[in-house]
Amino acid sequence: MRKSYTPEFKTQVVLEVLKEEKTMNEIASAHGIHVNQIRQWRNAFLEQMPKVFEKGNKKVEKMKAEYEQTIESLYAEVGRLTTQLSWLKKKSGIKE
């Protein structure tokens, strides 16, 4: 059965490696993890780090686009309803 580690645990181990207070072998034996696994986590961490500081986070951009689309459709609906109300008032002879 494979062991499964939480992202928090992986982050903690990688930060220990990056501090360079202990060797990778010491960290691996302290946590009961193979050194190659720690190297993979460290490499993945270092590859993903620049994305944290990217200006356009994809999730944020997607949420923003959905929000703007919702606002646009709501304004269109308000416009249609205003036009219908004006037409109904005109046809029924109601004065504002």
Automatic annotation (TrEMBL):
GO terms for biological process: DNA transposition. This is Transposase. The keyword Coiled coil applies. Signal peptide: none annotated. Gene3D superfamilies: Winged helix-like DNA-binding domain superfamily/Winged helix DNA-binding domain (1.10.10.10). The lineage of its organism: Bacteria, Bacillati, Bacillota, Bacilli, Bacillales. Residues 57-84 form a coiled coil. GO terms for molecular function: DNA binding; transposase activity. InterPro entries: Homeodomain-like_sf, Transposase_8, WH-like_DNA-bd_sf. Keywords: Coiled coil.
